[in-house]
Amino acid sequence: MNENPADLAPEMCVLLAAVLGLVNGLFLPRTRQWRVAVICAAGLIAGLAAAGVAATRADLAVFDAFQVDAITHVTRITVMAATLAVLALAAGPVRGHPRESEHYVLILLSALGAIVLGASSDLLVLVAAYLLASIPAYALAGFGKDAHGTEAALKYYLMGALLGVFMLAGVTVLFGVGRGTSYAALRAGLADAPPAAVAAGVVALLAGLLFKAGAVPGHFWVPDVTEGAPPAVAAFVTTVPKIGAFAALYRFGAEALPPGAAGWPALVAVVAAATMTLGNLAAFGQDNVRRLLAYSTVSQAGYLLVPVAMAGRTGLAEPALLYYLAAYAVTNAGAFAVVLAAGRDDLAGYAGLMRRSPLHGLSLVICLLGFIDTPPTAVFVGKVLMFGAALDGRYLWLAAVAAVNTVASVFYYLRWLVPTFRRPDGASRPARGATAVAVAAALLSVALGIGAGVALTF
Amino acid sequence: MLTLVIFLPVLVAAVLPAVPRRAVPWTWTAVSLAEVALVAWMWAAHGTGGGLSYETDARWIPSVGAGYHVGVDGLSLPLLALTAVLFAACAVYSLRQTHRVRAFAMLFLFLETVCLGLFAALDLLLFFVFFDLSIVGMYFVILLWGHGDRSRSALKFFLYTFLGSLVLLLGFIGLYLGADPNTFDMVELTRNPPPQGGLAGLTLIAVAIGLGIKTPVVPFHTWLPPAHTDAPAAGSAILAGVMLKMGTYGLVRIAMPMLPDAWRRYALVFLVVGLVSVLYGALVALAQDNVKRLIAYTSVNHMGYIVLALGAAGYASGDADARRLAVTGAVTQMVSHGLVTGALFLLAGVLHDRAGGYDLGRFGGIARDAPVFAWLFAVAAFASLGLPGLSGFIAEFQIFAGTIGSGTTAAAVTGALAVVGILITAGLFLRVLHRAVLGPPGELTGRVTDLRRPELAALAPLLLLSLLIGVVPRGLLDTIEPVSAAVIGLVGR
Description:
The complex is a heterodimer of chains A (458) and B (493).
Chain A: H1 9-27, H2 34-55, E1 60-62, E2 66-68, H3 70-94, H4 100-119, H5 123-141, H6 147-178, H7 183-189, H8 195-213, H9 221-228, H10 231-237, H11 240-256, H12 264-283, H13 289-309, H14 317-342, H15 353-356, H16 358-372, H17 378-392, H18 396-417, H19 432-450, H20 452-457
Antiparallel strand pairs in A: 1-2
Helix pairs in contact in A: 1-2, 1-4, 2-3, 2-4, 3-4, 3-10, 3-11, 3-14, 4-5, 4-11, 5-6, 6-7, 6-8, 6-9, 8-11, 9-10, 9-13, 10-14, 11-13, 11-14, 12-13, 12-18, 13-14, 13-17, 13-18, 14-16, 14-17, 14-19, 16-18, 16-19, 17-18, 17-19
Chain B: H1 2-15, H2 24-46, E1 53-61, E2 66-72, H3 76-93, H4 101-120, H5 124-145, H6 150-178, H7 186-191, H8 198-214, H9 224-230, H10 233-258, H11 260-265, H12 267-286, H13 291-312, H14 320-355, H15 366-369, H16 371-385, H17 391-405, H18 409-437, H19 453-471, H20 474-491
Helix pairs in contact in B: 1-2, 1-4, 2-3, 2-4, 3-4, 3-10, 3-14, 3-19, 4-5, 5-6, 5-10, 6-8, 6-9, 8-10, 9-10, 9-13, 10-13, 10-14, 10-20, 12-13, 12-18, 13-14, 13-17, 13-18, 14-16, 14-17, 14-19, 14-20, 16-18, 16-19, 17-18, 17-19
């Protein structure tokens, strides 16, 4: 048994940065609290470096409950990079806020929860990670203490608590019939357990994970939190916890379930189809770009569920999921950075963006075309792999549904894109920091698209 | 070398923001003329032999067997040349453009890279990347510089062709999964086609629908008329002249060699779809009063001939020489249609530029005040209806000789029926000449002044090339011949 804590170095860096940040925040005067952001960013960068080093080593399991393999590497790197982007986005708006340092610390703790969520191979650790990823996010959603934020936080919390209880019930049932909580034990134990009980346990467990992933039926919080919470928090909750949740879903399907148990592919495929369709249909009429992005993330969650459904059925499923996850995180962070930089939530506020600040507008175009899955962006490669996984797994109808949905989604992304080419009606300067994040995300998206070979062999 | 030819326009587009405003159109023109020269040089160096030249194969996404693989042969060279010539014509034509010149030039240079890349791609994923980017580029051309109900037309164009591209992608993934070992490499897939069977049939359906929407054939053509009508003249010329060829090029390059068995099995479907496109396109064009819509529908008709010929080539039982003739005719038709329709759309653009309308009924007797315009329009119309001595005749003659002569009943019957299409086209173009160019003056005729110098410089080479192909077709045909022989051989496997 391997119990070397050094294998958890990236997580340790994040945790240490969070603790240091919290302690420092207690003593720093309000005007100097930005130092906490620097500490947190340093912790994330150190964590990224450690994760990079870890990715070159062989796979291993730590404490019997924490896998260090390709899925974990991608989860770690994506979560930490996305969190870094969110810190950069949040730094401006919360500067000088009475609870500035708490804001950063909560973000870091939730990110830590997301990483553990993606890496755990034991149901109990999974539950602990779920709570760690969720509770700081509830607080973050209500950070502004305004009416919208409070409503959002309450809705988020109630949904999370309810579905978390379902998840716990699911864990209990699976533990009961599978005689264990580690994935390896479950894979052996569930093979000759009563199928109905296994199915019930899996469905209940899915409730919690789908809530974190923002997929149907746990998606009700997404639009309200995205619109009500501060924009940087919205960027965070629609990006980071999802990464962990999808990694966890995939790992559960591939490693804990015996092949074919609980009708996994069919069950998840139906959820995936419902999620993408619902997200797209709901996004059509939105005039608020944050709500539009919220529903777009719901539909993207649907595409991300496709490789999850194909877990274990085809070799393409894992690269598809991991690549799509990273691509999605980059693109979503970029889109939210554009919203933050513009400082406007209504579609009308984006008229003439292209002429007012071409760099800012171009980032928006690249991010949205990325969501539409135009080559050569990162999401395009992810989607090709996703289609490949669906066809190779003999889920032709799912691939067709995903294709039709992609076409449908073009409509609302274009609704946002087209006004940016109009004549500007007034001058407004985009926020410098957020624009930098947006441009970086757009560049990274194209780089990941063109350099997909390098990223995939890694 | 080939990579330079492909990416030179987009590189210039990247530095265009730094160029002074007045020099933008000239830079654009210079680059596109340089592209013509480069492609001509490549063609001269390739000669008329078979096989691939200028091949480059670099790693791109090795884990899924996709690479940056480009090269040219007798099939891609004519289309590359057509692309370069048409883009140069559009650059010259747009010298007088005043509305957001810089962005317009950047977008067209980007589109030129995309189109050249598509015709040179030897990797399915690379092909798809260019295929998809062409949709995005053309969408912005229609949206930002179009007229009429442009945002609606642009959206319809985008949604329709984008759906086609996704279906095509599913087909490509089907090819990828069917191959052993899995690969997106076209040369590999052509040499060693995926095992045939039920899956190959499904794959062919996906590929054919995807390419058919782009071509477009009936019943997938409904995006075309609004897109053409509302696009700017240069945009229509590129859309019809170059981008429609992407569909038929894909059929010859991908569908026929990689799915030979399925192609033979479904040859009748292609024959019938081609025939319906020919007749329907011609009949609907006959009923149009809007010049641009009329030209758009004749495109459906002309692209129908190509599909018809390729369908006839799918009957392995037919006479091999005749089938080869049909394929050669189809490729010639791609080039001919590009030149002629490009010229027709630019001419229609002149009408819109002067009079602000396309309505046939409001023009008449243009020939008196604008003799050069009238002459060129007449030449383009005759080229389009297949008058001997012009490129359309060479193409259509080979298509019909090949289709009817291939010896199978189905091909002979559909070919004979399709000849009616020529008659209708002749009728409708003569009607246009009667109503707009000759006859009593209409209410808008007074506004039509004759061609300006840049317009003439853009249009004359297109029609001269059409004439050149019509009179001395040997050079073009000799380049295409080895490829059509190879394609026939591959389909016959």
